[in-house]
Amino acid sequence: MNLFVHHDATALARLVGASHPGCTGVILAHPPVGDALASFVDGNPLASDFLLDVELPGRTIVLWSGTLAETLFGDEPRTWMRPGHDALRRFCDAAAPTLLLRGRTLCFRPHVRHVLSDVQGCLNFLRDRAGQPFTIALAPADLLTPDMLANAEEHLTRAFEALGPRAAMVLLHDGQVAGATTGGSDSDVLLPAPFGSGRLPREIVARLLREHVPAATPVVLLPTEVEAQRTLLGIG
Q1: Fewest CB atoms within 10 Å of the CB: 38, 84, 139, 184?
Q2: What are the Cα distances from residue 36, in Å, to 13, 32, 68, 71, 173?
Q3: Which of 104, 103, 107, 20 lies closest to 63, judged by CA?
Q4: What mean pLDDT do residues 154-163 have?
Q5: Sign of the C-alpha dihedral computed for residues 18, 23, 29 and 34 taken in this order
Q6: What is the 3-state secondary structure (H, E, C) of 105-144?
Q7: Are strands 190-193 and 105-109 parallel, antiparallel or unpaired?
Q8: Alpha-carbon distance 215 to 189, whole Å?
Q9: pTM of the model
């Protein structure tokens, strides 16, 4: 398995005495060797004030596909309709020339609240942008809501079967229901957590990963208790 870890970029910058790195995450091999695989930018590319810095660690920049809501995970139906898809199209058309010039690739991280919110939408995007500097990350927990957990195996199977062979990387984190950790009311999105510490059926995810994701595809874990996550995935 081609294993990587998604590190907090600000913490890494402090360790080496650098200024703020311009991104919120850096994806490095585990154990660390060579250059960064990618940087993660935690912003809304569909917002009017969004600026993308392509001079970040790694040749790939991972970011959300974005929303028309006022907050990053707000509930805005227009996001999934034509206005949202038109906004993403304009963003990609504007970004493509610079990406090609700089030899960079944008890897979109789908989420149930964003324009790229489901398997079919991701497949359509990959088809429409074939040959362009855009790819998709498979982040299975981001494609689920708490209500979908009852049929998690069905949803996860579809996601891995369709996107596992096509994804540029797998962001393999778990998902926790907000109320379970904060004491508040349940949210309708899942919060990221280290693999094995949330609500995803870990044995099913591990099996689907083995069955549908090529061995060379980067599998990216959160940085907490990495060795425990490796054990759950059957990595010696």
Answers
A1: 184
A2: 13, 9, 31, 29, 19
A3: 107
A4: 98
A5: negative
A6: EEEEECCCCCCCCCHHHHHHHHHHCCCCCEEEEECHHHHC
A7: unpaired
A8: 30
A9: 0.92
